[in-house]
User: What shape does this take?
Amino acid sequence: MAGALAITGTACTGNGDKGAGPSFQGGSEAEQGPKASAAITTPAADARDVPAATEIVFASKDAVETTVEVENAAGEPVKGALTAAGRWLPEKALEYGTTYTATVTATGDDGKPATTTSTFTTMAKPSKQIRVTSFLGDGQTVGVGMPLIVKFSRAVPEDYRDDVQRRMTVRSTPAQEGIWHWVSPTEVRYRPKTYWKANTEIFYKIQTGGLPMGGGWYGRADLTVDIKTGPAVVMTVDNKTKKMTVKKNGKVIKTIPVSLGKKSTPSSSGTMVVIEKLKETVFNTMDDPNPANRYITDIEYAQRLTWGGEFIHAAPWSVASQGRTNVSHGCVNMSTANAKWLFNQTRVGDPIVVKGTERKLQNGNGWTDWNMSWDEYVKGSAIPVGETATAPTTTEPTAGTAAG
Assistant: This one.
């Protein structure tokens, strides 16, 4: 049935007397009404100014199958799917200022359908809209430590973040447990419980088009992104040995002598990821309050780790100290040959763990999502960790089932 979703079993049924047979009082069995019943609670019949992101909230009783259909005024079916919460969600935001009809049909074990409808009209296009953007774009290949980063053009009030988060879906192949974490009122990130598996396919969808987001503001549009991870490249730097160990898919592929930050400018200990890669750049620290730390230097094979200016990079001037003594201003120094080799192995999002330095990494100084324990990370979610997002796992209009 085009545009329809079928729900079978008892997932959306009430607690009716399942053992009771049909009543024959007042007429024959054929004259009795359907055993099942259905009701639509949202949107209410004849409702106007309905948000374009509305879900169809319904209930059925004594039904073995329930179907949901939504059509526009021209009778054209609207694609959508059932959410984990048992509501029907359109594949994309509805059109503004448009009339739709939702039809829910419940069929009991007597084979008789009971149908209810709700005709409603969506609101006019709002003037106050919030734009949603993703740091990543379709087709990118990233490191196994890459968080999914979504930003909003305006702060989302705390009371609305759970509604927004329930419209944010992540699917990975192979499947991996993860959760969204609000970094600020304008930014939310997602990471799995452990690093992404190598060569994972990741799809995420932000269904905020037309969604109320507080203060009369609404989501401007939906967003979808398809990416994947590459091999699992993980770097570990030990200040005690002054060496970096590079693993690829769990196997050590190289050990590199390094020089970290000297005592007056120590490197940060913690778990970071590569934020950006620059084959050639210039380090300019002439605004540093300490004249001893001011310099302008051409740099090759730089990989940013923190917003504060810590990089992995080639440092031919410190080769004699690499593997022996820390002489840098906080960066991970290595020879040009080793820096070039590493640069060709890594991607944005590859993790690096630095151990044993005098300074701990500050959360927020870079993409520090992995510098937090899982228990700490889930505290940044606007919904409980065990709750499944309400966005649908499929957006096809074909029939689906929900087991009771």
Observations:
- The two ends are 22 Å apart (CA to CA).
- The first strand starts at residue 4 and ends at 8.
